[in-house]
């Protein structure tokens, strides 16, 4: 069968790479893809972005099902459009995707259904927001309510920073329409983890646990980004905590969505804070797999991803099982200097050719592309075309070994003005050492 993956980032590269490993899958098309997906065996990029054209392509190619990677097409209603055309597509409807599209919708939903989350208030008026901040004090968290590509969150350690964030979002409109409303939340202390599941609307299949590193710089300093690296599994989620997350967050969310007439089919990502008292609180919902969490998670997945997705599309996810590599996977994002605000683009990437050959002969690492394209003088050079350029992902017998291996690989790749953190996985390593 043939599958279509929509998107062009590292998450979509990983999804397409994993799907084509199935003996039942003939080819995976990626729309629009990147230079990495262009070089993978069994994958083919197609330069189509309009929903109507994607529908026509899926019909013409007899695509078995389509997978939506990023949030923007979900927000635009691509799932509804495909379903109206009689096509199978894995992802939530536009209405169900409100869990990510609107943070105020998500917060109200959680409050309504007693799903644990931080205390909050929503504002469209800057003056009222400023008054609320003065009343609550700092530290405090300011979020653009709409989609801001993972960058619309400010953790303000002072009142000055909080007031500046309000002005930036509501008055200066730094995030455009996504910032027409702000959510102001209490600051939660603890450990942030990622918990991603598949849902068919009724049943839930948890994927491997992971932990993302959202801040730009070492030691979790600097601005929030879309993610600078991740690893899986995380030692912070014990079996008892896993059961607690399913009981208090995941199952109530899927069940409540169904009761409200908005069945949720697709990936549900819960960004969670584990407090020192072992309370679980939802920081955010995403209606897709995380990036870069997808890369280490799928490097560990031994099951047939296409079979899991078919179960989800057929409402039989309760019959599906997952098998995982016992090793730890860690992914390091190599970004362009200036990310996340103004990344430098167009630099030639060197050192990948040999690694691409080597990764086809081993199962212990893979270089996933995100912001890459073919360019240069002959049009065949690998060049940077985005903020996050690559995710160097490796397996190791433990977290420390996986970390060392990934950094050894990353050091073999060079492009002008490259940037990466040097401590991905440090939370987990510190936690393990303290046990």
UniProtKB/TrEMBL annotation:
<dbReference type="GO" id="GO:0009113">
    <property type="term" value="P:purine nucleobase biosynthetic process"/>
</dbReference>
<dbReference type="InterPro" id="IPR016185">
    <property type="entry name" value="PreATP-grasp_dom_sf"/>
</dbReference>
<dbReference type="InterPro" id="IPR020561">
    <property type="entry name" value="PRibGlycinamid_synth_ATP-grasp"/>
</dbReference>
<dbReference type="GO" id="GO:0005524">
    <property type="term" value="F:ATP binding"/>
</dbReference>
<dbReference type="InterPro" id="IPR011054">
    <property type="entry name" value="Rudment_hybrid_motif"/>
</dbReference>
<keyword id="KW-0547">Nucleotide-binding</keyword>
<keyword id="KW-0067">ATP-binding</keyword>
<dbReference type="InterPro" id="IPR011761">
    <property type="entry name" value="ATP-grasp"/>
</dbReference>
<dbReference type="Pfam" id="PF02844">
    <property type="entry name" value="GARS_N"/>
</dbReference>
<dbReference type="GO" id="GO:0004637">
    <property type="term" value="F:phosphoribosylamine-glycine ligase activity"/>
</dbReference>
<dbReference type="InterPro" id="IPR000115">
    <property type="entry name" value="PRibGlycinamide_synth"/>
</dbReference>
<dbReference type="InterPro" id="IPR013815">
    <property type="entry name" value="ATP_grasp_subdomain_1"/>
</dbReference>
<dbReference type="Pfam" id="PF01071">
    <property type="entry name" value="GARS_A"/>
</dbReference>
<comment type="similarity">
    <text>Belongs to the GARS family.</text>
</comment>
<dbReference type="Pfam" id="PF02843">
    <property type="entry name" value="GARS_C"/>
</dbReference>
<keyword id="KW-0460">Magnesium</keyword>
<keyword id="KW-0436">Ligase</keyword>
<dbReference type="InterPro" id="IPR037123">
    <property type="entry name" value="PRibGlycinamide_synth_C_sf"/>
</dbReference>
<dbReference type="GO" id="GO:0046872">
    <property type="term" value="F:metal ion binding"/>
</dbReference>
<keyword id="KW-0464">Manganese</keyword>
<comment type="pathway">
    <text>Purine metabolism; IMP biosynthesis via de novo pathway; N(1)-(5-phospho-D-ribosyl)glycinamide from 5-phospho-alpha-D-ribose 1-diphosphate: step 2/2.</text>
</comment>
<dbReference type="InterPro" id="IPR020562">
    <property type="entry name" value="PRibGlycinamide_synth_N"/>
</dbReference>
<dbReference type="GO" id="GO:0006189">
    <property type="term" value="P:'de novo' IMP biosynthetic process"/>
</dbReference>
<protein>
    <recommendedName>
        <fullName>Phosphoribosylamine--glycine ligase</fullName>
        <ecNumber>6.3.4.13</ecNumber>
    </recommendedName>
</protein>
<keyword id="KW-0658">Purine biosynthesis</keyword>
<keyword id="KW-0479">Metal-binding</keyword>
<dbReference type="InterPro" id="IPR020560">
    <property type="entry name" value="PRibGlycinamide_synth_C-dom"/>
</dbReference>
<feature type="domain" description="ATP-grasp">
    <location>
        <begin position="107"/>
        <end position="314"/>
    </location>
</feature>
């Amino acid at each position: 069968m043939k599958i279509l993956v929509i998107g062009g980032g590292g998450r979509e590269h990983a999804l397409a790479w994993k799907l084509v490993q199935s003996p039942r899958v003939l080819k995976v098309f990626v729309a629009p893809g990147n230079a990495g997906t262009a070089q993978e065996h069994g994958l083919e990029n197609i330069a189509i972005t309009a929903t109507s054209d994607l529908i026509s392509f899926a019909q013409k190619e007899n695509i078995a099902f389509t997978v939506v990677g990023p949030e923007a097409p979900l927000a635009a209603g691509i799932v509804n459009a495909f379903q109206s055309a009689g096509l199978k597509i894995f992802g939530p409807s536009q209405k169900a995707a409100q869990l990510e599209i609107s943070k105020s919708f998500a917060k109200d939903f959680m409050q309504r259904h007693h799903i644990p989350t931080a205390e909050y208030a929503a504002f469209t008026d800057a003056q009222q927001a400023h008054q609320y901040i003065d009343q609550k004090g700092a530290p405090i968290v300011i979020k653009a309510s709409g989609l801001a590509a993972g960058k619309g969150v400010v953790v303000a350690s002072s009142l000055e920073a909080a007031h500046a964030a309000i002005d930036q979002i509501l008055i200066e409109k730094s995030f455009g329409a996504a910032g027409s409303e702000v959510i102001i939340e209490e600051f939660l202390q603890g450990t942030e983890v990622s918990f991603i599941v598949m849902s068919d609307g009724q049943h839930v299949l948890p994927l491997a646990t992971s932990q993302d590193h959202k801040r730009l710089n070492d030691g979790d300093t600097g601005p929030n980004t879309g993610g600078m690296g991740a690893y899986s599994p995380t030692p912070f989620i014990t079996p008892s905590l896993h059961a607690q997350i399913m009981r208090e967050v995941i199952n109530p969310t899927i069940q409540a969505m169904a009761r409200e007439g908005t069945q949720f089919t697709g990936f549900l990502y819960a960004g969670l804070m584990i407090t020192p008292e072992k309370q679980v609180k939802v920081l955010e919902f995403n209606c897709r797999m995380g990036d870069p969490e997808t890369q280490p998670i799928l490097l560990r997945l031994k099951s047939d991803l296409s079979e899991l997705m078919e179960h989800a599309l057929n409402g039989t996810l309760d019959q599906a099982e997952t098998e995982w590599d016992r090793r730890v996977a860690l992914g390091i994002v190599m970004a362009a200097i200036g990310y996340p605000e103004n990344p430098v683009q167009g630099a030639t990437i060197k050192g990948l050719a040999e690694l691409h050959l080597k990764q086809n002969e081993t199962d212990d690492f893979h270089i996933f592309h995100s912001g890459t394209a073919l360019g240069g003088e002959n049009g065949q050079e690998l060049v940077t075309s985005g903020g996050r350029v690559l995710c160097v992902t490796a397996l190791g017998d433990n977290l420390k070994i996986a970390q060392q291996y990934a950094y050894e690989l990353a050091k073999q790749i060079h492009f002008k003005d490259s940037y990466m953190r040097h401590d991905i996985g440090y939370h987990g390593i510190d936690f393990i050492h303290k046990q």
